[in-house]
Amino acid sequence: MTARFLRAALLCAIAYANPAAAQSGAPPAAAYFAQPAIEDAVLSPDGRRVAARTLIDGRARLALFDMSGAAPTIHAVALPEEERLEWHRWLGGDRLLVSLLTEGPHPTTRLASLDLTTGALTQLGTARPAEVDEQVLHVSPDGRFLLLAAPVPGRVTPGVYRIDLTTGATSLAVAPQDHVWDWVADSAGVIRAGMAQDGNRSWLLYRKHEGDRFSRSARGAGDARSGIERFVPIRGTDSGYALAQTPSGRIGLYAYDFAREQLCALLYEDRRVDLDGFQTDPDGRLLGVDYSSDRPETHWFDSHMQQRQRQIDAALPGRANRVLASTPDGLRSLVFSESAGDPGAFYVFGDSRATRVAAVSPTMSDQPAPEMRAVRYRARDGLEISGYLTLPAGRAAHGLPLIVMPHGGPFARDSWGYDPWVRYLADRGYAVLQPNYRGSTGFGRAFVARGDGQWGRGMQDDLDDGIAWLAAQGVADPNRVCIVGASYGGYAAMWAATARPGPYRCAVSFAGISDVGAQLAFDHKTFEERAYRAWKARIQGNAPSLDALSPIAHAASLRIPLMIAHGTADDTVPPDQSVRLHQTLTRLGRAHDYVAYPDQGHTLEGPRDNADFLDRIGRFLAEHNPA
């Protein structure tokens, strides 16, 4: 391989053409990161309008989509030119709540009520520094008031402000409490609970009614909320719902007794995956639970919503269709619909038909889309591994060149849906395997624990075993396989290139970890000592040392082409993790590619650098593993 050391200087402003893209007719890399044509869509209370941020004359602006007819009509909403819309939501039939950002040396944000009939903008409360952490906890359905968790002058922890949405008058509804960082409101707009944290200790402050005093957990710190991921109180009662670990180790939905601070009946558990969330109506009636098995979906308990989901899925077949909101009468719903090859589109479903509001990326929606399949295979020790296989459009699923793409984390997971890296590779003729290797979250506590002590070992075996399975199926050519990953996926790519190249012809790492010991030393400052030791043991397992798990310690064994990339402002995995490996390989005379992205963090932001990186991947693969 020709030595090409791409130094960590300023990047060239013009990315040169990708010959693989030119030959395949696939969209250029920039198309995969084009500015969304629509985002943050919210449905009006009557279901006849959608407010969203959309592109108008190349600029993101607030717009109203009138959905009364057979096709939407779009009207731009005027906002001050010197301010940027942060988010918005409905306050009633003709009013929007908007958060506006004023940029500059000292950026500020403010809340305002926007009258859509007159265009009048009424500021609510005072403007605040943009870096201040705030959270809207509740907006009353009649548009009279909202509750805002925000810092209180002179206090470390936040209080809760009540803001009148007509006059803008502001009052402190709940004063800050020591160690309470999060507040929980019910659907009536009553602050019911505060979640406190002091080091490793945690506890709950709770009250039933607005005039009651908050009481602290009688059981003491840490016991009341053990294993609980999220809970919601039902207004006027001591009852509620909680997501928590079940005896099987998966996240399920429980009834929760706030007065006794204990889980009650297990209401729902999926046999394979953790629940992501749940939905209730304002009266506390349970509507459904959300989870991602083979695809993202909702299990509805409500019979009307069950029927509605069936109708939506029939109108938009072969896609993942999530109901985002419905009108109070249940007759119209806002739906986000996506597929593996399409970033998605918003629809309003009503009168037995789905009317498209707008597509997130019209360019990508109009292209022939690859197919994404949920797959399962057995690792060499018999453990079942699930994942996703994306196949290029227009090619038979036989003898394909393969890209293995392990997710980051490693305590995370991949799900069915659009991924620009995957779509880019599939459009260039590659099959892409995304394994949820052992240690991935979302499949229960026991599966996560199977990843303990398995960096570079069992977790890596799961990737290799996926290749062998696809080769045995005839889908993949085992002699044309590369690995591409970011964060922990970048570590896996570095490890495959240095310690155990095995089935791989080449490897690409973004923000990968080359020195496990140095990364743990960096992480140490965010851990208490006991937690740090447990984390270190969880990674090292029975390995003789952390060096034994570090790609940089095996740099001399590099035998396949390797591309390394990193953002210079990464504060999760320090850029030194890639710089030092690059320097070591250079000193050893091992040819490789290296690129640094100035001012970028742990993930690339903005279309320019994202497109540049994909272009580089395309050229690298075209040379070392052509499709």
Automatic annotation (TrEMBL):
Gene3D superfamilies attached to this UniProt entry: alpha/beta hydrolase, TolB, C-terminal domain
Record's signal peptide: 1-22
Domain annotation Peptidase S9 prolyl oligopeptidase catalytic: ranges: 422-624
InterPro entries xref list: 6-blade_b-propeller_TolB-like, AB_hydrolase_fold, Peptidase_S9_cat, Quino_amine_DH_bsu
Coiled coil: none
Protein name: S9 family peptidase
A GO BP entry: proteolysis
Keywords: Hydrolase, Signal
Species of origin: Sphingomonas naasensis
GO MF annotation: an example: serine-type endopeptidase activity
Keyword Hydrolase: yes
